Amino acid sequence: MHCRNKRRKLSLALTLMATAWLATGSVQAKEVTDADIVNDAKTPGDVVSAGIGTQGQRFSPLKQINASTVKDLVPVWSMSFGGEKQRGQESQPLVHDGKMFVTASYSRLFAIDTKTGKKLWKYEQRLPDGIMPCCDVVNRGAALYANLVIFGTLDAQLVALDQDTGKVVWKTKVDEYSAGYSISAAPMIVKGMVISGVSGGEFGVIGRLEARDAKTGKLIWIRPTVEGHMGYKFDKDGNKVENGVSGTTNASWPGDLWKTGGASTWNNATYDPETNLIFVGTGNPAPWNSHLRPGDNLYSSSTVAINPDTGKIVWHYQNTPHDGWDFDGVNEFVSFDYKDPKTGKVVKAGGKADRNGFFFVNDRTNGKLLNAFPFVKEITWAKGIDLKTGRPIYNDDNRPGDPSASADGKKGSVVFSAPSFLGGKNQMPMAYSPQTGLFYVPANEWGMDIWNEPVAYKKGAAYLGAGFTIKALHDDYIGALRAVDPVTGKIVWENKNYAPLWGGVLSTGGGLVFYGTPEGFLKAVDAKSGKDLWQFQVGTGIVAPPITWEQDGEQYVAVAAGWGGAVPLWGGDVAKRVNFLEQGGSVWVFKLHKG
Ligand code: CA
Ligand code: CA
Q: CATH number of the domain at 34-592, out of 1.10.10.10, 2.40.50.690, 3.20.20.70, 2.140.10.10?
């Protein structure tokens, strides 16, 4: 009896131990916390945010791979996204607890063993036939929180999956895909909330940011980015509570046009914990034909700073007031500090390489413009940016003409504008290195013939009122990776590229800058000089940003590969020029070969 009891106790203890081990041990992933996300840039053992840190610098302190060792960088594994679904792969992978999470075209998400490249699971959103992505079926990445991996889909839903199993934990409709809404940006986690935007500026949607409880998907606030629309907070029962109108109705928009005003938030936002501000870029005002909407058309083509606790706009800076060229200002606003050369004081700034060709430096505490200079060689729409007023000095004759002023009322005068609407820089994120104080900007040199046409809003139809043809400016290159000094406004070095650059950039403590080309090369160059140090051909174009992390004492580099994005669809003469590039869909991982 005594002996049996003892045995029973032992077996109970073993069961409890096994249960505990199952619950906390190797089966269940280590949860991602708010601290992990806020500290992401400083913890090279993982990559748990888009931007490799919420400030978006895309700088890793790792230096095992450097100018002298990079020659030994070799592939460890590559995994195919498979199927017949290829097109553009613009995703930044995330790495946490031995797993990589990478999204792919057509709203797919893969979990992969980082060591072996073995696929652990795949999620594929069942997309309806009527989705309306303007610019390819891309996705720019996921967010991690607790045991969840969260991403947005082309049918405008947010999906949260269990990191271990890929099973849906929550799923929510953000808006109507039939009205032109979709999601292409990576969501971001701020204080336990998942922050996400919407795409669809070419269909007259209403841009906005939304904050939800990351664990449940329950709405916390909505902040529209078109002046005149109401923001809301939601109480614990899900009831709408008005949270203040965004600006003043009809102040910068005439008549009813603000109701379909665009300013979509289709690219990744950033968050600066020091100022407690979310920075989101906004797209073009709708429609493109600017003669239909006199005024600045706030908050289109702007950087908008939002307090995550209230969902209110704290400041905004409009990069292209009254945009008439589709200069979406969605480019990422990257926090950085510099010493003012005159006063020696540290300035809390943010840098943005805008689609309109100018690099803007703003005080990130209040939005005040500190510096603005061209990062491309040809800009026709403005002579410069007035640092006193913060406004562009327009070349009025470079605005496409008013169709209602033409003889038949059908087509306004054609102008040749540079940059083209695909931008001095587009979706591909730049990197900043605190070691060199330089931004590394994937720039493009191109222009466009553009003209305006009459247009009326119709739900679910393109809402442009414009026609265009994109043209290269030079025979030998369109792309140029440029090292930009944000304080002096100087281009310190540039590496030209035949095809337009469309992938993002990574900078490292090893003094390297990594970026991919549509020609299929992942490259490493010297951060100070731009000197080519290493390249590897991945077999298809790269239009995604690379990452790096450390695991078991070794530094890894990864990048998604697969040619596509807006250029083949909208590129006009340029699309013909690069039609030799092949599609694909895979992720590649590299580390140093031990001799
Ligand atoms: Ca990290
Ligand atoms: Ca646009």
A: 2.140.10.10
